[in-house]
Design goal:
324 residues; TIM Barrel; two-stranded parallel sheet
Length: 324
Amino acid sequence: MSTYSDMVDDLLGRGIRPMPTLHHFSHPSWWEEKGGFADERNLVDFLSYSERVFDALSDRVEVWCTINEPTVFSAMGYTLGQFPPGRRNIILTLRVMKNMMRAHSMVYKRLKERAPECKLGIAKNVTLFDPANRWSPIDWPVSRLLEWLWNGAWRRAITRGSMLGSRIPDAKGSLDFVGLNYYTHFITGLFLPTSTEELSFTKRENEVGTEFGYPMYAEGMRRAIDFVSELEVPIEITENGVADSDDSLRPVHLMRHLWVISEAIKDGRDVISYHHWSLMDNFEWAEGYKMRFGLYHVDFETQERTLRPSGEIYRDVIKSSSKM
């Protein structure tokens, strides 16, 4: 914990507000051997861990993210098998989704009891699903089903305290803010992939593809903002970016998405912050170091960091903006 404590102090010293995330795709191997999030009995361990981190940092940290992208973790780890533990079982996927919501609810309730002034939320990946053929009687139901499983069921837990046929009463209202991670939309049809090897991203005419494969769809940011606005809590854009090794697309991608966000704010949407993904090139769980998301290029041999032109553009936007 001393490392994270030092990081918090350094960030505060630079005028940067820290937002610790208690779970971002990784946890101890011993806990996974017990079943991890697939076993509801293990959630007390996650609660205990969360309290320990909170005790160490809450004297300096006000804003907390309990879980990053619970739907991504569930689907990639238990449906597509590309994240640990590498399972392919839809029943387990749904169980993990519900247990992650239970874990969030437990942590929210306990930490708010201890420090009512703290702010807690979830970082939710909102991927949009659109029919490949707008006139197809098959593609529409498929896209709506996926939209519900990926986004709607999660929101229902927060608004009504129920999720995928199970009651999770403490989930209702368990957000002080919502973290929105937005990247793209997914064009869907009858064929549903069972692994990332089978996964392909269809693009509409005139859409630009990214190195990750999915299309740039800045308009979808507004749809995603409108979707989470139904929760009636402040919105923090906790992730938004593009894999672009030569930095040819990122400047346009960045400015288009920032424009969409600015228009949403003008229309009354309560967007209070934007966090670009990412500050520097990072490790992606399924793709390794191949996908370069950073405003800073990282030489992974020497660890040298070099600011890309898109980083200079973003720096200028920040300097000239009083809103974000």
